[in-house]
Write a structure and sequence with these properties.
Helix content: 40-55%
Order of helices and strands: HHEHHEHHEHHE
Strand content: 5-15%
Largest sheet: 4 strands, antiparallel
Number of strands: 4
Length: 174
């Protein structure tokens, strides 16, 4: 009788609202692409500098210091990791195409596979738009399984001011 009662309590513990909140966010992986795809927030370096100035000014050097911006960006990133508890929060440069999909030429240029495909004039005419993304996971198995919980996503979304989305990384190996 005791073991049956004990198992019943264990089953109840597993399905409590607290344990539900500890599950990774519900997220559908995008269709595979030539490069790793990242789920995260587009942000600017300026946003990170302002964030550091507002939330951890004591960790910043004097504004006239040569490496002020780089230090502020690093401190903002560290502070965001501390505040959100998202330990796999990573800054990644991603493609930022206007209109949806990443043109094949952009991928060829980043992969160095353009010699046989593009002429010098075509290569010079390509303008590749990129964006700095704070990523919370990628479409790779290990990263996807380690995605944050909903509470963490809600918190960082509120801080950033807009929602996350999938982005294709510029490099093919991370």
């Amino acid at each position: 009788m005791f073991s049956l009662l004990s198992k019943s309590f264990d089953a109840l513990k597993i399905s409590t609202p607290d344990s539900i909140r500890q599950r990774p966010i519900k997220l559908v992986r995008p269709k595979k692409q030539p490069h790793v795809q990242f789920y995260g927030y587009a942000i600017s370096h300026e946003w990170l500098v302002r964030f550091a100035e507002q939330h951890c000014p004591e960790a910043l050097p004097d504004r006239s210091d040569r490496g002020y911006e780089d230090t502020a960006i690093s401190r903002a990133y560290e502070h965001l990791v501390d505040l959100t508890g998202i330990n796999n929060l990573d800054p990644v440069t991603c493609f930022n195409p206007k209109g949806g999909s990443v043109p094949a030429e952009w991928i060829a240029v980043y992969d160095g596979d353009y010699d046989d495909v593009l002429s010098d004039e075509e290569l010079l005419a390509i303008r590749i738009d990129t964006v700095y993304v704070l990523t919370v996971c990628s479409d790779e198995d290990d990263s996807f399984e380690e995605r944050p919980i909903q509470e963490q996503m809600d918190y960082i979304t509120k801080m950033v001011g807009h929602g996350p989305q999938w982005w294709m990384g510029c490099r093919n190996i991370y």
